[in-house]
User: Fold AN1-type domain-containing protein from Podospora australis.
Amino acid sequence: MPKKIRCSLDDCKAVAQRISGDCAFCGGHYCSNHRLLEDHKCQGLEDCKKEAFEQNAMQLNKERTQVIKGV
Assistant:
């Protein structure tokens, strides 16, 4: 039987959540209490925020209403 993966947070000994506990930004494996970026103080949190901001800005620019002059 394979060994269960434990939470990557130093003080936590809980079992890491499959899929939802895997952090794409730091590569850690976290339990349900520490799976969110803010909860495990992820090193990639600022990159995540920047990426989300850029995606939102692009989407807003695509959806911006165009003003047609002379109609």
Notes: The chain has a mean pLDDT of 87. The chain has one helix and no strands. The longest helix spans residues 45-63.
